[in-house]
């Protein structure tokens, strides 16, 4: 099976459950958004997939091959990390050289071309780069690798709007050209909504949503209007949250978006992915 | 094992510059000391012996640093712990072997040309066999590399506080052993142990020397330390 299969993964840090019997799959040839709040378990999951940490139980299979301590997956997956795992004293061009030695599928000319687009000075050492350019450097490595599965952990950290836009464009270009699987773990949900096809919400170490963005957005809607009318409309419906501003109230409802009766002075809208995410995960740390 | 070669090359390449700087600084200081002594005394003498000790310090530091940066970089580039470990051991062998060649050649040249200069090996076993001199130095350097590599792996695994407690425990064990030798063991036991140690270092009971014994002894200890390192690194997670 061409997929990353996560089977019954659990991970504890002392008394904190980071992942609680997580099972799902990232299928081949799609762009996924792995979304979760701080401490939800995103990075733990990514680090287990990338063999950087070990699960307490369960296993990860990449195209049917165990990902744990298995060099056979070396040319199948790459994980761009939020953490600095690169030699800080090497120059960018030296890192490109080593990446081409470590990976058969690393395209050095593509890396140089993208570096030029980002105006990245390849003669600078990693430690001399700003936080934004360190992220750009890591993105370039990931985008220049033609491996089936690429994971981006907080890819646009420290990037300005122009550079973020360029990244999304390059990602889509790569996706159209290569049929890879891209997994983007990020907090910037609004930005990736237009890019991702599938979404995985992770909260408190559990997967709470794993489906296509289109299907997910059809599952809910928002209703806004006066408090009295909204409360009246919501009776008997599955509500996942409210927002209030002055006399205006917005209710977020699970269910098929209806055609609004003209009698009611209510406005019905499609929920955004970010709103849905917030409402589904807002039990803690409001 | 096709992916091992780039990892070994990477590990070695990051050490070449520090090795160059190390030798440049070491021999510059050594030359300065010689010049000053010559000017002051008017004799062709040196102020230092056994420069291999400096290399032992250097390879020990290399052992410590080999974990921190290289482990992260190779893990980032998809290497398993087994490959990271193997590439590190290959790097240790390459570096210690190369530095042992340099130290053997330079040490023997200095001994020949500078009055009173002695290498550690020369002081213990003489200057008759360059090959065994090189082999002996290589295994000694490997032992220190492995020892400090293991130490840093242990520190990373158990944390600073537990490492300190282990350090205190080791000091306690050393003190107990010294006390055992002085006050508990009979002179016959002490004599047997000392004879065993001397034999292991190549000094035989009949007054002859067997250089293979110390080489095998150091290799054996280094091997055990390396196996312990693997036992730890295979369970090491990225912090």
Any key phrases for this structure?
heterodimer; A: 286 residues; alpha/beta; Rossmann fold; 6-stranded mixed sheet; 9 helices; 14 strands; 30% helix; B: 239 residues; mainly alpha
Structure description:
- The complex is a heterodimer of chains A (286) and B (239).
- By secondary structure, chain A is an alpha/beta fold.
- In chain A, the strands form 3 sheets. A 6-stranded mixed sheet of chain A has the order 6-7-8-3-9-10, sandwiched between helices. In chain A, strands 2-1-4-5 form a 4-stranded antiparallel sheet, covered by helices on one side.
- The two termini of chain A are 40 Å apart.
- Chain A contains 9 helices and 14 strands.
- Chain A has 2 domains: 3-212, Rossmann fold (3-Layer(aba) Sandwich), CATH 3.40.50.300; 219-280, no CATH class.
- The mean pLDDT of chain A is 91.
- Chain B has 239 residues and is mostly helical.
- Chain B has one domain.
- Helices cover 80% and strands 0% of the residues of chain B.
- Chain B starts with a helix and ends in a 6-residue tail after the last helix.
Indicate the topology.
The complex is a heterodimer of chains A (286) and B (239).
Chain A: E1 3-13, E2 16-27, E3 31-36, H1 42-49, E4 57-62, E5 65-66, E6 77-80, H2 92-102, H3 108-117, H4 131-143, E7 149-153, H5 161-178, E8 181-186, H6 189-192, E9 198-203, E10 206-212, H7 213-218, E11 220-226, H8 227-234, E12 238-245, E13 248-254, E14 267-270, H9 273-280
Parallel strand pairs in A: 3-8, 3-9, 6-7, 7-8
Antiparallel strand pairs in A: 1-2, 1-4, 4-5, 9-10, 11-13, 11-14, 12-13
Chain B: H1 4-41, H2 52-76, H3 81-113, H4 120-125, H5 130-158, H6 160-184, H7 187-200, H8 212-233
């Amino acid at each position: 099976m061409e997929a990353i299969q996560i089977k019954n993964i659990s991970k504890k840090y002392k008394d904190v459950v980071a992942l609680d019997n997580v099972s799902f799959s990232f299928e081949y040839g799609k762009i996924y958004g792995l979304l979760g709040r701080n401490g939800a378990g995103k990075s733990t999951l990514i680090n287990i997939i990338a063999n950087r940490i070990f699960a307490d139980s369960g296993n990860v299979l990449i195209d049917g091959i165990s990902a744990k301590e298995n060099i056979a997956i070396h040319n199948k997956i790459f994980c761009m990390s939020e953490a600095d795992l690169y030699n800080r004293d090497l120059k960018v061009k030296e890192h490109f050289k080593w990446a081409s030695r470590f990976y058969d599928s690393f395209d050095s000319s593509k890396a140089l071309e993208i570096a030029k687009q980002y105006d990245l000075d390849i003669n600078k050492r990693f430690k001399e780069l700003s936080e934004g350019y360190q992220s750009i450097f890591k993105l370039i490595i990931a985008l220049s690798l033609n491996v089936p599965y690429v994971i981006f952990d907080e890819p646009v950290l420290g990037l300005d709007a122009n550079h973020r836009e360029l990244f999304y464009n390059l990602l889509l270009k790569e996706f159209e050209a290569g049929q890879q699987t891209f997994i983007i773990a990020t907090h910037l949900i609004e930005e990736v909504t237009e890019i991702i096809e599938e979404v995985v919400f992770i909260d408190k170490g559990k997967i709470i949503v794993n489906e296509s963005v289109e299907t997910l957005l059809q599952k809910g809607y928002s209703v806004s209007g006066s408090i009295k009318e909204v409360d009246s409309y919501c009776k008997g419906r599955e509500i996942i949250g409210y927002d209030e501003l002055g006399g205006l109230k917005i209710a977020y409802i699970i269910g098929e978006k209806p055609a609004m009766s003209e009698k009611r002075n209510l406005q019905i809208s499609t929920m955004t992915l970010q709103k849905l995410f917030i409402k589904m995960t807002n039990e803690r740390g409001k | 094992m096709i992916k091992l070669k780039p990892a070994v090359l990477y590990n070695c390449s990051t050490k070449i510059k520090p090795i160059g700087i190390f030798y440049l600084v070491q021999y510059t200081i050594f030359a300065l000391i010689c010049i000053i002594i010559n000017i002051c005394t008017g004799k062709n003498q040196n102020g230092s012996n056994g420069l291999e000790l400096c290399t032992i310090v250097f390879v020990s530091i290399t052992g410590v640093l080999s974990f921190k940066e290289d482990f992260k970089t190779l893990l980032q580039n998809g290497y398993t712990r087994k490959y990271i470990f193997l590439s590190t051991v290959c790097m240790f062998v390459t570096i210690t072997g190369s530095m042992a060649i340099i130290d053997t050649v330079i040490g023997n040249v200095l001994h020949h040309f500078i009055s009173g200069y002695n290498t550690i090996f020369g002081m213990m076993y003489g200057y008759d066999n360059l090959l065994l001199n090189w082999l002996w130095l290589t295994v000694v350097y490997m032992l220190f590399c492995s020892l400090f590599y293991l130490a840093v792996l242990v520190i990373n695994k158990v944390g600073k506080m537990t490492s300190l407690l282990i350090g205190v425990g080791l000091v306690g064990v050393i003190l107990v052993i010294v006390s055992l030798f002085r006050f508990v063991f009979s002179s016959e036991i002490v004599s047997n142990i000392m004879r065993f140690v001397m034999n292991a270092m190549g000094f035989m009971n009949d007054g002859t020397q067997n250089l293979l014994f110390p080489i095998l002894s150091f290799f054996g200890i280094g091997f055990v330390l390396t196996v312990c390192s693997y036992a730890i690194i295979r369970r090491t997670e990225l912090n």
